[in-house]
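User: I've been trying to design a sequence by hand for this structure and keep getting stuck. Would you show me what you'd pick, starting by listing the structure so we're on the same page?

Assistant: Good idea, let's start from the same input. This is the structure you sent:
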């Protein structure tokens, strides 16, 4: 083994709670991620893996593979040429309430899990209940920095809060969020997210690919 070898996950449990770690591995430059026992042989290695290979088990990792299937070679090239970062919802309760964060150039990125798309968890002026997935072992994200102010984001069941680093510009903010895909190394936008969708962070529920553009004003 060499310290500069690429990360490879040749085997991991196929239970749905392991699927979220795909995003963390991807953001750390993984060149492969292979859940054990995804073939329909009738053999199950519970408690290391799932009790059955039902639709819920397959979809937990399958939906992640599907969203990247159109850009797997593009992502490999992007991850080789640009900085990346990944995170997944921690197992421990303290880790779920403490944001995971990183600094990429002039910008900070922090995660939050178990969030609705609107509002804040600490609001007291209006009554709300946690979302159905709040206690589920789901959620994660992978981020690639395409340029000084542009980021490619892919993940699910996570809220991302972009901010300005200590050395970053004054009055920094999210300028634009586009949903789309990468085709032959080129970004192809399908739609622009509106202000309501980005007012309380960038919230990913189902796996989706976004390009986030940051900026500042005087």
């Amino acid at each position: 083994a060499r310290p500069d070898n690429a990360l490879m996950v040749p085997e991991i449990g196929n239970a749905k709670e392991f699927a979220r770690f795909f995003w963390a591995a991807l953001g750390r430059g993984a060149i492969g991620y292979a859940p054990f026992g995804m073939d329909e042989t009738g053999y199950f290695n519970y408690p290391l893996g799932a009790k059955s290979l039902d639709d819920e088990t397959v979809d937990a990792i399958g939906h992640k593979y599907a969203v990247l299937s159109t850009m797997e070679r593009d992502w490999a090239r992007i991850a080789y040429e640009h900085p990346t970062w990944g995170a997944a919802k921690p197992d421990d309760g303290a880790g779920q309430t403490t944001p995971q964060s990183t600094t990429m150039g002039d910008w900070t990125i922090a995660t939050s899990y178990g969030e609705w798309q609107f509002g804040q968890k600490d609001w007291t002026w209006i009554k709300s209940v946690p979302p159905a997935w709040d206690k589920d072992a789901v959620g994660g994200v992978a981020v690639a920095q395409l340029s000084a102010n542009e980021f490619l984001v892919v993940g699910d069941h996570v809220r991302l809060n972009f901010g300005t680093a200590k050395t970053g510009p004054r009055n920094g903010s999210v300028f634009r969020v586009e949903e789309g895909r990468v085709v032959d190394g080129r970004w192809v936008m399908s739609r622009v997210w509106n202000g309501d969708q980005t007012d309380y962070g960038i919230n990913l529920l189902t796996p989706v690919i976004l390009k986030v553009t940051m900026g500042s004003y005087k």
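That's my pick for every position. To get oriented when you compare it with your attempt: The first strand starts at residue 9 and ends at 12. The two ends are 50 Å apart (CA to CA).
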